[in-house]
User: Fold this.
Amino acid sequence: MAEHRKHMIDKATGTETTGHEWDGIRELNTPLPRWWLWMFYMTIIWSIGYWIVYPTWPLVSSYTSGLVGWHSRQAILDDLAALREQRAALVGRIAATPLESILSDQSLLDFARAQGRTAFADNCAPCHGAGGGGAKGYPNLNDDEWLWGGKLDDIAFTIRHGIRSTDENTRMGSMPAFGRDKILSRADILTVADYVRSLSGLTTLDANELAKGKKTFTENCAACHGDAGKGNREVGAPDLTDQIWLYGSDRNTIIEGLMNGRGAVMPAWGPRLDDTTIKSLTVYVHTLGGGQK
Amino acid sequence: MNTDLLERQSRANAAPIHDTETGSDVPESEPPLYAARRKIYPQSVKGTFRRIKWAVLVITLAIYYFLPFIRWNRGPDAPDQAVLIDFPGRRFYFFFIEIWPQEIYFFTGLLIIAAMTLFLMNAVAGRVWCGYLCPQTVWTDLFLAIERLVEGDRRAQMAADAGPWTTQRVLRKGLKHVLWLMVAWWTGGAWVLYFADAPTLVRDLATGQAPLLAYGWIGTLTATTYALAGHMREQVCTYMCPWPRIQAALTDEYALNVTYRYDRGEPRSSVKKSEQLRLAGLAAGDCIDCRQCVNVCPTGIDIRNGSQVECIQCGLCIDACDSVMQKIGRPPKLIGYDSEVNLERRLAGESPVQKIVRTRTVLYAVIIAAVGGIMLYALLTRHAFDVSVIHDRNPIFVRMADGAIRNGYTMRILNKRLEPRRFAMTIDGVPGNVIEIVGLPLGAARIVEVGPDQSREFRVLVNSYEYAPRASSPIVFHLTDMESGEWAQAQDNFRAPERPK
Assistant:
C-alpha cells in the first residue's frame, strides 16, 4: 500500500525522498531539470500556433481557415498539378506519336506502360482483373485471342467506343438466344453444343450426332462464327476452335449460351478518358502479351 | 558502484543528519520536483589529456569542414565529389565506393560496427567516445574556448556574472554570441555541402541562388549547434543522451575509467596538515581538497564521488590534479584511468592488474572483425550489375489460343557501371520455351541495353509448348554482359495448370 509520509533524507544516498512509500520502499526525489518543464510549456504554445496558422475550429456553418489558407484538398491538387507539369513533356510526345511508333521507342513505351498500368487499375480492373486476367464473361487480355481484334488500332477503338455501349460507333453484334426465342429445338441445341466442343478437340457425347450438329451449325451459327468456326472479329464472334473460352468449355455452359444468347457490354471510355490515357491504355493492354501486329 | 566508497562519501560529505533505521525527518517544506540548472564555469587546464582533446578537436573539425571539398574523378557523367549523399540521384559516393539504395545493408553493417566499437572502447577505457570524440563534446569544447577568449577564464566570468551589467560586459557577451553564431552557421553550412556539389553550392549560397531547402537546413543546424554547444552543453549528456545509461550497464570491474584513487587520496586534509600527520607517522591522504578537479570539470561534478552518470571521462580532472600533485611534490595520477578491480586490489595490498583480453572485449572484437569482414567481402565481390525478376501476380499463367502456357515476368536490370551495357539473356528450366521481351521484335536476339548508372525494367513473356513437369517449376533467368562476360542470374517459378490426367 502506498503511504504518504513526511519526506526524509535517504540514508544510503543522501538524497531527499518524496515522502511516498510502498511496502517500505521509499521514492527518492531526483528533481527534473526545470528546462524540461519549459519545453513542455513551449510545446503548448507551439500548439496554439497551429490554431492560428492552420484550419482548426469548427464554426456553425464553416470553420476557421487559418492564416496561410492551407487546405488538404488544395494540397493534393497542387501535388497533382506538379506531377502533370513534370510529365508534360512525355505526355506531349505520347499525344504526338502514332501508336506503332510508341512501341518501338523504349522510353515512350516505358512511360506509356506505366501510365497505362495506373489507368487500367483505376478503370478496367473491376471487370478485367488487376493484371487483365479476366473472369468468366470478361476476356483475359493477356492471351492472344481477341474478340474484336488485337492490333493497336482495334484495341484503341474498343476502348474508345466500347462494346454494345451507348456510343453511336460502338462495336455491335450479339449471339441470339436460340433456345429462348424458339429458333432451335432443344434437341438441336444439344447436338450443336456437342459439335462445338468437337471443334477444339473436346470429348463429345455421341459421335454419330456430330454430322447433324454440323448441319445445324452451318445453317444457324456459321453466319457469324464462320464455316470452320474460326469466328469473325467484325461482329465479335469468338473463334470456337482454339483453347480459350470466354464463358467456359463445359457442355452446360455452351448450352446456356445457345439457350439464352450472349452479349456482354463494355462502356465507351472515349468521353471519360483523355486521348493520351487511352493511347497509354492501348499500349499497356497490347503489351500484356497478346498484342498483334 | 563500490558501496564502501558510497558510505565513505556520505559520511564525509553529507551534512550531519540524524541517522535512524528509516532515515531522518526533514522538517522543511515539500521538496521541489524541478531543479534549476546550476551554471558551470569550467576552468581552463593544461596537460596531456587537454593536448589530446585539442588534437582530436582539430582533426575531427578539419575533416568535417573540409571533406566535402575533396574531389574524386569518376568520369564525365558522375559527380566528382569524394563524399556525396546524392538524394535526387539516389546514390551515396564515398571515394571509390558507390552505394545504391539496394545496398543499404552496408549502412546497417556500419551501424553494427559503430555500436560494437563504442562497446569495445567502453570495455577497454570507458567513455572514450563521450570524452574525446562525440560532436557534442568537440563543439562544446570549441564554444568554451571562444567563451574564455572573450570573457576570460572561470574566475573572470564568475566575477562578471555576479556584478552589474556594465557596457564592457554587454559588449563581451555580445561578441561571444556573435562568434558562437558564426561557428554554428559555418557548421550548418558545412552540413549541406555533403548533399550537393560543394563548390557550386557555396557559390549559390553566397549569391542567394541556392535552393530554399539548403538555407532552411543551415538555419536549423545553426540553431541546434548554437543551442546545444553554447547553451545546453552538459545538459545534453546528462538528460538527453541515452549512452550514459547504456554505458553504466555495460561497464565492468576491469574497464579503465577516470577514477579518483580514494585509497591514496583519503583522508583529505590541507598540505600542511598532511605533512604533519606523515611526520607523526599517521595516515594522510594525497588529496588536499583544492577542488581543482571540480573547477575544470565541464559537467560540474566531483570525480571524488566515484563513477557518475554525468561524467564524460574527458580526463581534464587528471590534468588538473597532476599539476597540483607536481606542485606539492606528491606522485601524479591521484586521479587517473583506473579500474574498479585495481582499487580493491590496492586496498587489499595486492599489485594492480591490467586485463584487456576479457570475454566481452574478445566478443566485441570478433563481432567487429566478422561484420567488417563480411562487408569487405561483399564490397569486393559485388556485381557491377544485378538482375531481379518478379512473376506476374495476376494472372498466374495464361493459356494461349494454341494451348501453350504463358507466364509473364517483370525483370529489372541494374547497371552500376558508368557506361551503357548490353546483356544477353537466356532461360533455363522450362522445356520448349519461347521467350518474348516486350519492346523487342519477336524472334530477335534477346539482347537488352541498360544506360549508364541506371536500372531498367523489362516485361518478359515465356511460353511453354510442353506441359511443365509440375504446377510450379523453377526457371532461371541468366544474363551475360556482351563485352566483359560478367554474368548474373535470378530465379523464379514457371506456373502451369496441373497436367491433365
